[in-house]
# Entry
Amino acid sequence: MSENNDYTSDTESSEDEIEPKLKYVRLSNDLQSILLKSSATCIAVHPKFICLGSHWGVIHVLDHQGNSIQGKELKAHTVSVNQISIDSNGEFIATCSDDGRVFIHSLFTKDNLHLNLGRLVKTIALDPSYYKLGSNKRFITGDDKLTLYERTFLGSLRPTVLCESEGLVRSLCWGENFLAWSSNIGVRVYDMNARCSLGLIKWEEHPGVSIDKFRCNLRWADTRTLLIAWVDTVRVCVIRKRSNIELANRDLPEYLVDPVSTFQTEFYLSGIAPLDHQLVLLGVPKELDDHQKSLRPQLYIVDYRDNEYTDSCTDNLSLRGYEEYTVNDYHLDVLLEENRFFIVAPKDVVIASPYDLDDRIQWFIQHSKFDEALEILMQNDSRNINRHTIQSVGVDYLDYLLSRGMYDAAGRLGLKIFGKNPNLWEDQIYKFASVHQLRSVSPYIPRTLDSKLNPHIYEMILYEYLKLDSKGFLSLVKEWNPGLYNIAAVINAVLEHLLNCETDKNVYLEALAILYSYEKKYDRSLSMYLKLKHKDVFTLIQKHNLYGVIQDMLIDLMDLDHKKTIELLLEKNTISSDKIVEKLRQNELHLYRYLDEYDKKNPKGKYHKELVKLYAIFARNKLLPFLKKSDFYPIQEALDICQKEKYYPEMVYLLGRIGDTKEALELIINELKDMQHAISFCQEHDDRDLWNDLIDHCVDKPDFVTFLLQSIGTYVDPTVLILKIKKGMEIPGLKNSLVKMLNQYNLQVSVQEGCKKILVLDYFNLQKKLVKAHQKGISVCDELVCGACHRKLTEKDPTRVSSMAMFNCKHAFHVHCLPDNTTVCGICYALEPK
# Structure
């Protein structure tokens, strides 16, 4: 271990190192030379300074770095200093020694006190308010009794024995209103206001261990909590106020001491202090080493509850000369406000303090736990952290990951630490380039134009992908904004690479096509897409509105994807349909596909002549429906095409349209041999001569005759067919056919007669209704006016009464207002011109 202020401790841990709670600094400077000449016997600390008692009876006043404060070295005793006490304001120091002297020294005035008691004085305590003007300047000493000294009105000291002790008073600690001291049998607490003892906390004797051989360590954690560490037992006591019921029943002190936790340790105790809700214990192992020397002292941080405790952290302390010291040679003091712990050995002083945020971060970095370090930085205000930043720790973490080949993790870390800050990224990106791992960081670097890096960096990344990962290169070309890099430089690199490349050429050509489109060299881009037969050519056309330049590429585009090509052509109409048809005439299949879709959107009959031929070649199933719905094709040409291809159903339809029903019927009978179709055809045209032709064609074919007998009874007079049947011809199923025919004919006659009866009955009903309506009277009211002169028809003055005429339509007129010999209403019927 070095002799300077650098200090390390060994922390007990499992395989996974546990974050330490405390950091250690050896106090050096002037203290180092002091301890070379003498030994430390006790210590008292104040936020302003440190007082160290030595074996030669000198009290050294030091700052917190171990420097002597000039003029403050006090040669108060001739033998070892037993205890030092400092008032709460840091103005007075009290010391005692086995030489029987008590020394109280003022650091800023000459109000000093030298008192020779003539007996061993093991302990002393200043009133925390000793510095206050008007106070009684109280202090307490301990030997075989506890004595309070206070200054009287006239300035003399008045001793008062507070309590006799069972043996020597070995430890003494004055809180705000309460005093604790130890004797040979236990610890007492005294109420300084009530001037009464609150009771004895008796200490248990252990076999073979005498408690008077061990120093009792007392510490007030606050004004009401007392910590006791003696031999190997720890007690935490709380001073609480008695209830009114307890005080009323018996004559008891107002306060009592309540031990809330007691536990035994596996080591001897040299000191105790609080740390938040935990305890800090300075301990010495009970065992000795192989040479019967003492083992290293240890500093424990423990959690306690009731009668149990658990170690939170244990540090082995490398104090100078520890092999020669026992438990009583060590001391522990604390600055409660700062949680700074002063560990004193005869030849060494070490300060322990909790890790601050910077210390924790540094420890995590040293142990390669960078995630934890970053978490601290991200969760805490940067004003509380002085030595580290997210970026500085992030850079260390980045170097760590790169050194271990964890490139993808390093890339993700970059995104987390540097975000979209171009300056931070550019400083670190070359580290990836040096190990040829730009591909690992490429998904995480800034990609937006407002936070873009130097274009050279993006080109470096693309070049690495170009050489090592063709698909990754294509992906980046698609994803990245072309404004991030020099497009021409990348195109040149791709062209150069293609000269020496034997694999994945199509991938590079596709990337090249995209790059040309970024440069707005769309003709090159389109030609490359077509060469590759890549369907992104349609996206390019739509995105950049390139409809005007695709006229000469129609055949290639149709070969690539005729559906998308036709969709483009019909969507924008930038190229006239006549030009498209002219270009596609060299490929009738593509022409058919285009015109078929064109006709669906433009059903005005244009190109129907071409469609007849194209349907006849490529879509026979569409031909007949098309012929039926359209009137915009030359029928004779359509008939010639159907005759050439021998499309008989289409020929039948076309012949029917031009009136050549006889030839159409012959095709149905002779070529299609479909009697049902023939009957439907005759029924559709409803021509008696056509029916006779059908009968004449079928009368010499027994099977046809049978079918006719069963089917035409409802359309023509069946006797026509029967009379034309040759005598002696055998007709299969003749009887059943005749029965069916007669039934059909009778049914037809019955239906006709039924209809006739309905008509006659309906006629008489309507006639009766009409007569009844004419027989009804017509109401004439006072408000009725003449339809011609619009004067009232009814008059109360008899001289003005005239005849009126009322029609069944309810219109009425004065007779003299009507034309002569009229029999109809002039309103409902216009008069016939003469």
Summary: The longest helix spans residues 734-775. DSSP finds 27 helices and 31 strands in the chain.
